Amino acid sequence: MERRSFLQAFFFSATALVVASLPYAVARLLAPAYASKYPNHLRPPGALPDDEAFVEACIGCGLCGEICPVKCIQFDIRQGGNELYTPFIDPVVKACILCDKCMEVCPTEALTKTERQDIKMGLAQIDRMTCYPWVDRGVCGACVTICPLGEKAIKFDFANIYRPTIVDRGCVGCGLCVEVCPHPSLPIAIVEPEHGSIMSHRVY
Amino acid sequence: MAETIKPFALWYHLNKIRWLVLLSVFLMLILLPFIHVYQTFVASFSYDLLEPGEKSLYDLMEMLTSPFTSDPANDLDSIKGTTWSGNFFGFQISDPLSVLGQIASGLTLYWPFIITALIPVVASLVFGRFFCGWICPATLLYELNTTLSLWLHRFGFKSGNRKFDRRLKYLVLAVGLALSAASGSVLISVIYPPAIIGRELYFGIALGGFGAGLVFFVITLLFDLLVARRGFCRYVCPGGALYSLLGRFRLFRIKRIVENCNDCAKCNAVCEFGLDPLHDDFGQECNNCAACIAVCPTDAMTFVIATQDVEFQGAGHLGKQYQRASNAGE
């Protein structure tokens, strides 16, 4: 191919690719505003800690979602951008039960086999201004009862009433406590520890 | 007259077998999401809580799978995935394009993933671009789309039949990989129809809604219908480009038997990839779909084992051009 025709074909194919990606861009514009910056996007267990590395490694095959027995893994399917077709878990809708199947099935290094106590999806935090036992509005321990790691991750403190307290080291951030929390405003949430406390996460 | 060479009898029926394979792969992609939904029902012991429609789905899936397994929640995990990347009784098989795209996006080599593409790569080295003709779930829809355009032709609809440069898709492959590297995500998969089909079927059935990829796929169908017949596969598809490169020196190729050929050019008309079998010009882009073998009225197409196409063998011996020339020579 001569240089002139090569350049022509090059620009033609680049234009074709840009045109081809237009549906994704349009879908992203039409998506509701909250969907573009949703607070509860946890990566599945065993994900690479660096999210950019995770997006680079993930090929978007959907195997992790297809094998999940509780169907908690969802995908960014209408938002466009780099994270298109990458998996996430929204614990408010459905939380991970730490069954390890997604880590076993993932063909890439995006999800690698990790021991249960070494998983780090986030860290649960309790809003002590809202949680029923913490504001003396009744007895509740749903989060403590459901926690798959038990005493290592969340336990009761006693001060006049039994109140749930997170153990920072033990919590893996699976989000089951968020799913079962009976309070309508969900005083428990999974946060990224380096991004501050639950109070700053509530500002969205 | 010398004894005429006949192709092996099975070759005539390969096109039918191919349609069966395409159809079963496509139906598998539809069945697997339903099986996943069924597995989630089983795992949560929720039969009594299901809605009537979900109950009938549960019963149907139980009927289909109960002969093979007594523990559906775990045993049915052995077949999962799509043609983009799948898990088949413990074997992980991935599309070579997904491996290339991941290498490009991360600029790292992760060997456990790279070897999952070994089986498709070796098969492509032997059978050429067979994935495009025999397995790709988008091929089924694209070929039905071609059939639809021929059908519409009867009612006076002119479908587009423009020609572009077939080398364009290699450029799309290169540019797509470069963009994947630049953006740091496997961007090439959003313009690769088999990956789109597999994903969107799963999203539509199990996750309750199709994604943006379906819009793109419908646009490619319209492009094929209105601009160029089978245009996306011929001119744009990056995976087709990769498989063509792998299949350049394939062992299995179709060859024209010049003694049987009568120059009717039906093979050129039926070829989905716009190749030129009549003039022995198959090249690296033939997908061994065997449609030309099935359509040939004089049994002039057959499979041979060779690493190169033969040179142009001249006009067919049953054709007018050859007979006129030989009569003049006598």
Care to describe what's here?
The complex is a heterodimer of chains A (about 200) and B (about 325). In chain A, strand 4 (about 155-160) and strand 5 form a beta hairpin. Chain A has about 200 residues and is an alpha+beta fold. The longest helix of chain A has 28 residues, at about 5-30. Chain A is elongated, with a radius of gyration of 21 Å. Chain A is built from eight helices and six strands, in the order H-H-H-H-E-E-H-E-H-E-E-H-E-H. Chain A starts with a helix and ends with a helix. Chain B has two domains: about 85-245, no CATH class; about 250-330, Alpha-Beta Plaits, CATH 3.30.70. In chain B, the strands form two sheets. Chain B has a three-stranded antiparallel sheet. In chain B, strands 4-5 form a two-stranded antiparallel sheet. The relative contact order of chain B is 0.13. In chain B, helix 1 packs across helix 2 (about 50-65), helix 1 (about 10-45) runs parallel beside helix 10 and helix 9 (about 170-185) packs across helix 13. Chains A and B meet through helix 1, helix 3 and helix 4 of A and helix 1, strand 2, helix 4, helix 9 and helix 10 of B.
Gross morphology of chain B: globular
Largest sheet of chain A, if any? 2 strands, antiparallel
CATH fold-level name of the largest domain in chain A: Alpha-Beta Plaits
User: Could you tell me the number of beta strands of chain B?
Assistant: 5
Q: Approximately what portion of the residues of chain A adopt beta-strand conformation? A: 5-15%
Segments of chain B where pLDDT lies below 50 for 5+ residues?
none
Largest interface: A-B, 48 and 59 residues
Write a short abstract of this structure.
The complex is a heterodimer of chains A (204) and B (330). Chain A is of the alpha+beta class and 204 residues long.
Write the layout of secondary structure elements.
The complex is a heterodimer of chains A (204) and B (330).
Chain A: H1 3-30, H2 33-36, H3 51-57, H4 63-67, E1 73-75, E2 87-89, H5 101-105, E3 123-126, H6 142-146, E4 154-159, E5 161-166, H7 176-180, E6 188-191, H8 198-201
Antiparallel strand pairs in A: 1-2, 3-6, 4-5
Chain B: H1 9-43, H2 52-65, H3 72-75, E1 79-81, E2 85-88, E3 91-94, H4 96-106, H5 111-114, H6 118-127, H7 130-134, H8 137-154, H9 168-183, H10 193-206, H11 213-226, H12 231-236, H13 238-246, E4 252-256, H14 266-270, H15 291-295, E5 301-305, H16 320-329
Antiparallel strand pairs in B: 1-2, 2-3, 4-5
